[in-house]
Amino acid sequence: MDANNTFDSDLIHAIFKHIWARRFRERERSDAIDATEAEVALGTTKKNRLASEAVQRAAIIAEAEGMEKIEATHLERILPQLLLDF
Question: Which one of 1, 11, 18, 74 is CB 3.0 to 4.6 Å from 58, fit for a cystine?
């Protein structure tokens, strides 16, 4: 191979370093976005679970009273215990 047709090893090293650094930054951003989305999803799940539990407990009280609809008073009765449980 001719000496004039060789690549500068420092240039090749700099190119690879640049590409690897860029991919690393992209991966970090992607991981940060995924972590944020996971936290939001987890928070939503907890809220849904709390709301579902509140409705279920209020429904039990309404049923015990012979009512077919849940009223605000049923929710008021279960809230103190619900908050202690969660």
Answer: 74
Rg (CA), the chain: 30
- Residue 63 tokens, joined: 């049923």
More confident residue, 64 or 48: 64
Domain boundaries, the chain: 7-85
What pLDDT does residue 64 have? 92
Separation between Cα atoms, residue 1 and residue 50, nearest integer Å: 73
Average pLDDT for 61-66: 91
CA distance 28 to 9: 28
CA 51 to chain centre: 18
Is 23:47 a contact under the CB 8 Å cutoff?
Answer: no
